[in-house]
Amino acid sequence: MQGLAVLVDILVMLTNVLVMLIIVQFVIGLLFAFNVVSPGNEFLRQVYESINRLLEPVLRPIRNIMPNTGAIDFSPLVLILGLQILTRVMMGLAGAY
User: Fold this and answer.
1) What is the pTM of this model?
2) Per-residue pLDDT tens for 77-87?
3) Radius of gyration of the chain, Cα coordinates, nearest whole angstrom
């Protein structure tokens, strides 16, 4: 049973990293959108594009299922909610509560 708890802890850490990447992507996107940081800033552009490449395979299926909402993309929010639900289920199954 202790091995399952360790596995769940590792999966929880990985989901937390994924959520942090989504938040960083969102913040950098806002900085670019509101011209707080120039889109010509090469370092932030590279970070933003790298995170986009990592998250796109996960977000694309969610975008395909969700209805088109125009300029607002709710797929990162849906992914975060799904990851939180998955984390709670895994912790409940492992008896971590």
Assistant:
1) 0.85
2) 999 999 999 99
3) 16
